[in-house]
Amino acid sequence: MFKSKSFFLLIALLALGLLVGGIALIGYFYNESGNLALFTSHKNLKQVEAFNTEAEFLTYLSSANELSSFGSISGLSGIARNKMIEDVSMLSTEEASLTDTSAVVSERSSETNVQVQGIDEPDTVKTNGQEIFLSTMENNWYFDMPIDALSVDSSMPTSYTKNFNALPPEELAMNSEIKEGGELLLSDDNLIIFASNKIFGYDIKNPAKMEKIWEMKIDERSSYYTARLLNGKIYLITKTNIDDYNPCPIKPLTIEDKAVEIACTEIYHPLTSVPTDATYNIMAVDPATGAVNDKISFVGSYNNSVVYMSPNYLYVTFTYPGDMVELMYSFLTEDGKDLFPQIVIDDLRKLRGYDISQEPKMMELSVIMDNYLNTLPEDERLKLENDMENKLQTYLEKRKRDIERTAITKVNIDDLAVEKTGEIPGKPLNQFSLDEYEDNLRMAVTVGEDMMFDSNSANDLYVLNNDLEQIGSVLDLGVGERIYSARFVGEKGYVVTFKETDPFYVLDLKDAANPQKVGELKIPGYSSYLHPLNEDLILGVGKEENKVKLSLFDVSDAANPEELAKYSMNDYWSDVLNTHHAFLQDSAHEIFFMPGAEGGYVFSYAGNTLELKKTIAGFAISRAIYINDYLYIIGQNKIVVLDENTFEEVKSLEF
User: Fold this and answer.
1) Would residue 209 be called left, alpha or beta, if left means φ above 0 and alpha means ψ between -120 and 50 degrees?
2) Which of 106, 132, 293 is nearest to 204 (CA)?
3) Distance (Å, rounded) from C-alpha 388 to C-alpha 381?
4) Whole-prediction pTM
5) Cβ–Cβ contacts within 10 Å for residue 484, how many?
6) Pairwise CA distance, residues 18 & 24, whole Å
């Protein structure tokens, strides 16, 4: 049976949206301008409630699953439950004042580079100003042994957490080691280790013997997503694949053989059914005991999710694509209405109203289109293909903000209650695309990126009020490009987009209802990480011609940002491009540190210049911290200590 190339073009486009978003939504609404939009009516997304019973949850899932099904036309077989990749970009917190009773006292020490000052994030290195805690991984593969002699575990990396006495630096030494490793959080005298499927709590009052005091096991249907530490409380977030037959209660964790249960009445959902294949579970955990003191869950998707935490709220976002049948119908009734006869449009209008899932709708759509296309002579079909492709591109340009949108759930951290929900066009890059300031949420998103026509993409900034209602926006930053990094600092926002050049945008967000793009600078390459070194200096870390590139931006005049300095490193990679935790700034000495593939790099930004002060090579370097005026360069099997006043080596320790 003949199918038009242009029809396949449209189907491929829509299938791509399903792959990227993981879900499809049914329905449409009229936007404020009166134009037909291609997304589900979400007036009920602003209303959420908990399930009352398991039967109610099952009914909701039945409706949601119809929304997310997709058939054989695209070659897809349902929702891919992929693991999410956590973000990039960074913001520094430092100058913590610590005291110690030992002979050498820490006057200042670095903290993990996090997004929001005071809200700690798990990382592989932590310090309390006296000791260093390092999670390492060792691979025990013995090449001289026959394969059949190896146990299952002998080829698997083994994780350890090591404790080092850091002061005085000349006496750097390892205190103790435990055979459990992962990301770390440090809360008073408690070290928390987030392993792949377990979470451990250790008492570290005695550095020579860290004592395990509690342990959690993550259920096989669940996975650890992320965690935050605020005011002595851990906010643990896990994801759980929904059991379609017994969806609740959810049992994401087991503590001392006792399951932590989240009842049906603690699982929230929008009044409008949305495609659902997972729940996100937020639990408040006591670092000293591992006790779960509060918990909540809400429905969502494994794909395209971002978590951001402010001092008052947790925000979780999910990105949703639009409805394919609705897209075709609206296209043919607007820009493409002269392409097909009225009988085809009437058939699509009827199809829109069918109370069936996406799979049979798509099959029926294919039949409707084929029935008409097969009546055309070959030359007329060729003309239709060309006309349809051109008009479709123009149509997608107009509708790019309706095809893919992001839903936002706002959770009050005081009582772990879902407070508000909302939605905006487009898709955020990562947690640094969101920022809360003076009760408003600012979000930077890319719209139209997942379309077949790259020229349709653009980038927007939206300001939402306390009720998650849109009150301001800046549209069309970097048309034909996508966001590579974003940073919000007080009343200013900074966005980098990229395709061929690196536009660096400065946004004035002082008036939340009327945000403005006030400055723009275009330079080669791109910056995938933005770091405010001080009020007037923004550091960009990215790549140009396959080398790591540093750019120092002067933003003192917001309308005229300037690249004061540029440094091209003879290194092709830095972990800073992968995680903001790898970056370290010491403002007291006006330096920053970056690990690279070839070694470690210490740069000075004094005098608004970029100067490479020191390099360390010879071992795999992952992090650096400072304690007093000493810089500790840390790798998997070695630590090198530098005097920050002279950058001379004070001590090195192999382990």
Assistant:
1) beta
2) 132
3) 10
4) 0.84
5) 26
6) 6
